[in-house]
Amino acid sequence: MIKIALDMDDVLAATHDKLIDYVLNHLDTDVAEADFHQDSFENLLSVKEMKQVHSVLNTPGFFRTIPLIDGAQEAVYELSKHYEIYIASAAMEFRESFKDKFDWLDEHFPFIPWTNRIFCGDKSILYTDYLIDDSVRNIATFKANGILFTAPSNLRENRFVRADNWEEVKKMLL
Amino acid sequence: MIKIALDMDDVLAATHDKLIDYVLNHLDTDVAEADFHQDSFENLLSVKEMKQVHSVLNTPGFFRTIPLIDGAQEAVYELSKHYEIYIASAAMEFRESFKDKFDWLDEHFPFIPWTNRIFCGDKSILYTDYLIDDSVRNIATFKANGILFTAPSNLRENRFVRADNWEEVKKMLL
């Protein structure tokens, strides 16, 4: 069976949107909300502000209550009838995220068993046929078929196959 | 650089030995201690006893204080000068183990960064050149060069390249 690995943050979980809410409500920034939907935090925030963002990412509970990306749940369920689905998150960057991410998957993707969940760092060690990820670096180092999932951080990237949303993924793979 | 993935339990960490101590001290079993060094718990314990073993594996703290396997720390440090080392544990089976395993790695293998740590289930999705693991299933489904690390559960297996200890691994790879 063909294997597909799916990233979590900004592919299944609307992590960037939750962080925008945090930044607008807790940081004293002049950046307009619309700009955060067009570029990465790294490009828009100061080093000090990025430290605050990293700090909230390391807060227990942060990853437990992230909203779903539109259409992700239903699309992954449909894909799971035809493909072996793995969920691969670079969770190792955030020690406090492990249980929250695991429990979030239990809540929203209970049909993906523990055998098919991966917390890693560098995703170049993944041996699946597809990887759907919003990180340009992950898609660039992946050995098989990468699909770049559109996110504010990758809008100007044009080297890879791209899906703007889960409807487009379904059209490609179902 | 050639990539080597290393299992944690019974390759880096003496998990089976710690479980033997637990079984002998807490379960009412007639199995002799020597037998636990020659066969798997699955083959020696009852279903009810195995449930107790699984319960202790899911206790917060269990994986945090496991002793090192003889020679593992020094051998992995030597290997890390010549190979890109990843540590890949099937931690997903035990939700309470994540932080303990991460902190254990910070203590004993601080030279392996978070980018090179993997918590997974099915290891057939690993894309490295070598996998050193005591699980026959993991070695059997691995696509590249598997090295079966000797443990009580695999003594009767003879299909794979085997290393009895870290001295043998060093002789093979250094």
Summary, kept brief:
With 174 residues, chain A is α/β, with parallel strands linked by helices. Chain A has eight helices and six strands; from the N terminus they run βαααααβαββαββα.
Could you name the key traits of this structure?
homodimer, 174 residues, alpha/beta, 6-stranded parallel β-sheet, 8 helices, 6 strands, 37% helix, globular
Please characterize this protein's 3D structure.
The structure is a homodimer of 174-residue chains. Chain A is 37% helix and 14% strand. Chain A has eight helices and six strands; from the N terminus they run βαααααβαββαββα. Chain A has a six-stranded parallel β-sheet. Chain A is an alpha/beta fold and 174 residues long. The first copy, chain A, is globular, with a radius of gyration of 16 Å. At the A-B interface, α6 and β3 of A face α6 and β3 of B.
Average pLDDT score of chain A: 97
- Global morphology of chain A: globular
Task: Report the biggest beta sheet of chain A as strand number plus sense, adding barrel if it closes.
Answer: 6 strands, parallel
Q: Largest interface here, residues on each chain?
A: A-B, 27 and 27 residues
**Largest beta sheet: strand ordering of chain A:** 3-2-1-4-5-6
- Which secondary-structure class do the elements of chain A indicate? alpha/beta
Oligomer: homodimer
Distance separating the two termini of chain A:
14 Å
Instruction: Estimate the strand proportion of chain A.
Output: 5-15%
Percent helix of chain A? 25-40%
The tally of helices of chain A reads 8
Stretches of chain A where pLDDT falls below 50 for ≥5 residues?
none
Number of extended strands of chain A: 6
